[in-house]
Amino acid sequence: MLREIAIKNFAIIDDLRVGFEQGLNILSGETGAGKSIIITALNTLLGSRADASMIRTGAEDAELEALFDMDPDGPAAAVLAEQGLDPAEELIIRRILSKNNRHRVYINGKLTTMQLLSRVTENLAGISGQHEHQRLLRESEHLRILDQFTGLAPLRRKLHDCYHEILPRIRQLDELKAQKTEQTERMELLNFQKQEIDDTGISPGEDAELQQTRKRLKHAESLYQTVGGAVEELYNREGAVAERLKTVQKDIEKAAEIDPGLAETAEALTEAAIRVEDTVDHLRGYIDGIEFDPGRIEELDARIDTINRLKRKYGGSIEEILEYRDRIETEISENENIDDRIAETAAALTDARQRLCELAAELSEKRRAAAEDLAGRMEAELESLKMGNTRFTVSFRDNPPQPDTPDWLCMDGKAVTERGTEQALFMIAPNLGESPKPLSRIASGGELSRVILALKAILADTEPVETVVFDEVDAGIGGEVAEVVGRNPP
Fold this sequence. Notes:
alpha+beta, 58% helix, three-stranded antiparallel beta sheet, Rossmann fold, six-stranded antiparallel beta sheet, 16 helices
């Protein structure tokens, strides 16, 4: 609980220290005396936003400090222990506000962060002011209040987690289905391209070989004349190279018998004669292999055109075409299992949806059962606050599916959200004969103040907050009702 707060150079407060006792403590005074400033200071110590405008005029900084009794086994102590801070029975929070907006936070004398401050103070104190009236009028808060009253936070958290586990799976399934639709056309294209390349049966270097073969065919007559003439000069005509070389060879062999120094030369001439004969044999074979077939040139041109067409479509060379073909084959192979992936994702979604629907149904059932209990408790509390004829009910409205709501998030015609399948609405009929209407449409300021007090009293057992601060709790209340409220603190 809050035991003491010290305020220095904050707003209009110069230096103030206020102590508190166990139970009800009341700050009273005329308008402008500074009561709300004390509440603002406490709120700032609890982690609300601060800025330099809060510093008292003429001062360089403001200093706020609060002393709390802390349960060593409570959540605040657990947070401190987690951060390596000593969870003593007393907790001292100190904030220093500077004009340069470089504010500092201390917990038990150690400099810390705003994030840690918010975690530590989360359950230390709660402030209920005019904003609490507005919160109560927001229908989105009613479901949270009902769940808090019923202790359904753990179940609601399970639903929340399950819901957010399903969302990415739904997106994944949609993406896979879209991918399959796109793939149907792309796979047709890739299979066609692969088949087109395979049907040509091209091989590396084939285009160069084709060009060379075509060149030989085109110049076949010239090659025949040239090579045939070479054979004539080397061997066939009278006085050919082979004949004259053989004569020279025999002459040198005879000379080598006289002078052995010519033996090596004679041997070289013998080898030369043999090489000439081998060359003539090769040239004769070449002549026999020369084609004189204009139709064959047309076939080669058609083949070259086919390869050039593939080059224009798939790469600048046969090697690049074959590399592209390998990439196609890999992509086709990788995407052949998309149906299996869709089936696996859908099966996982089915299981997750069943779990989601079970949690949503359980939560809805417990909420509706708790609504009657809350209504009875509220009417009893309101009776003690001079609203004895009041009827309080909790109305439920199912979440309607929207056009873009996935079927996976629908059950029994209702949309399942992270909060469940319904919205809760607090209804009130302050007077006999009236039908219940939403709080925002019927409750006066005084009635709303008492409804908040009644709710706070009922929720006190479920809230871990040890200190509850009411700012202008008597708004709209006067006379006998004010006396009753004063005698019935929550």
